[in-house]
Write a structure and sequence with these properties.
The chain is an alpha/beta fold. The protein has a single domain (about 5-280), classed as NAD(P)-binding Rossmann-like Domain (Rossmann fold). The chain has 13 helices and ten strands. The strands form three sheets. It has a six-stranded parallel β-sheet, with helices on both faces. The protein has a two-stranded parallel ribbon with strand order 6-10. Helix 2 (about 25-35) packs across helix 7, helix 8 (about 200-210) packs parallel to helix 13 and helix 9 (about 220-230) runs antiparallel to helix 10. The longest helix has 13 residues, at about 170-180. The radius of gyration is 19 Å and the shape is globular. The relative contact order is 0.14. InterPro entries: Ergot_Alk_Oxidoreductase (IPR051604), NAD(P)-bd_dom (IPR016040), NAD(P)-bd_dom_sf (IPR036291). Pfam families: NAD_binding_10.
Length: about 290
C-alpha cells in the first residue's frame, strides 16, 4: 500500500482514510482502489493526529472520511469540526466493541473515554455518520501482537479457555467501504464479529492445521503474563495494560455473535478457518 506523500496530497481525491497503514485502514484503501474510487491514504508523517497543522491538507477536497482514532486521545471532535469546514459530508468512525457497557473490559490504558467522546462527537457532527464496533481482529494472529508467538510455535496468553468471535479485518474493510460509498448506512452502528465463537486453543489449532506445522496455545494467569512481559523489557504499567485486554475474553464477554457484517453487506462474515487458510496460502505465517 502506498504511504501518503506530498505529491499524493496535491492530487484531487474524494475519500480520506486515516490510519491507512493499520489492519483495517490499509484494507479499506485496497477495497476502494479495487473499485476504481479515488482515495487518499493518510499516514504519518504527512498526516499526524497530534499535529493539527497536517489536517487541512489531508481534508482538502475530501467528501467522506474513515476515521481511525489515536487511542488515548480526544482529537476526533476537533477533527470532525475541521472536516465539516472543508465540506466533508460523510464520516465512518472506527470504534470498539462493548462501548455501551462501562464494565465490559478493563481500561488500564485509559482508552475508553476517548472512544466515548469520539462516538458522541460523530453523532453530533451534523454529518452523515456510521460507527463500526469490531471485536477482536482475526489478524492479531498474523499481523498483530499474537503473530510473533504464532511464528515461534507457541502462543502464551492470559486468555483462559473462554472464546471470542474474532472478526476478519477484510470484513471490517468491506463494511467501511460500503458505508463510505453507498447510501443506506447513515445513522447505523455496526457491531462486527465473526460468525461463531472460537477459543484461543481452537484458533491456534486451526492455524496450526492451515500452516502445516505444530503451534500450541499456552494459557497463562494474568500475573504470569505480566511477569513474562516485564522480563522481556516491557514496563510494568504497559504489561498490566496488555494483560487487562484479555479480561473480557476470560470472562466470556467476547463470545457473543453480532450481526453487523450481515446487516451492512447482506452476507455472513468469514469464518476463522477461512481467515486461517487464506492467510496460510498467502504465506502469512512463514517462519523464514
Amino acid at each position: 500500500m502506498d504511504r501518503l506523500s506530498n505529491r499524493l496530497l496535491d492530487q484531487p481525491m474524494s475519500l480520506l482514510v486515516t490510519g491507512a497503514t493499520g489492519k483495517s485502514g490499509k484494507r479499506v484503501v485496497q477495497h476502494l482502489r479495487a473499485k476504481g474510487i479515488a482515495v487518499r491514504a493518510a499516514a504519518r508523517p504527512v498526516f499526524d493526529w497530534t499535529d493539527e497543522g497536517t489536517w487541512d491538507a489531508a481534508l482538502e477536497g475530501v467528501r467522506a472520511v474513515y476515521v481511525v482514532q489515536l487511542d488515548g486521545t480526544m482529537l476526533v471532535r476537533p477533527f470532525l469540526e475541521r472536516a465539516a469546514q472543508h465540506g466533508v459530508r460523510r464520516i465512518v468512525l472506527a470504534s470498539g466493541r462493548g462501548l455501551d457497557d462501562p464494565d465490559y473490559a478493563e481500561d488500564t490504558a485509559g482508552v475508553r473515554p476517548g472512544l466515548v467522546d469520539s462516538e458522541a462527537a460523530t453523532r453530533a457532527s451534523g454529518l452523515e455518520w456510521t460507527i463500526t464496533r469490531p471485536g477482536w481482529f482475526a489478524q492479531n494472529f498474523s499481523e498483530g501482537f499474537f503473530a510473533e508467538g504464532i511464528r515461534a510455535g507457541e502462543l502464551r496468553l492470559p486468555g483462559g479457555s473462554a472464546a471470542a468471535t474474532f472478526v476478519d479485518a477484510e470484513d471490517i474493510a468491506a463494511v467501511v467501504a460500503a458505508a463510505l460509498t453507498e447510501d443506506g448506512h447513515s445513522g447505523q452502528v455496526y457491531e462486527l464479529s465473526g460468525p461463531h465463537p472460537v477459543t484461543l486453543a481452537e484458533a491456534v489449532a486451526t492455524i496450526s492445521e492451515a500452516a502445516g506445522r505444530e503451534i500450541r496455545y499456552v494459557p497463562l494467569s494474568p500475573e504470569q503474563y505480566v511477569a513474562e512481559l516485564v522480563q522481556q523489557g516491557t514496563s510494568p504499567t504497559d504489561a498490566q495494560a496488555f494483560a487487562d485486554l484479555f479480561a473480557a475474553i476470560r470472562e466470556g464477554k467476547d463470545a457473543h455473535v453480532s450481526d453487523g457484517v450481515r446487516q451492512a453487506l447482506g452476507r455472513p462474515p468469514r469464518t476463522f478457518a477461512e481467515f486461517a487458510h487464506a492467510t496460510a496460502a498467502e504465506g502469512g505465517w512463514s517462519t523464514g
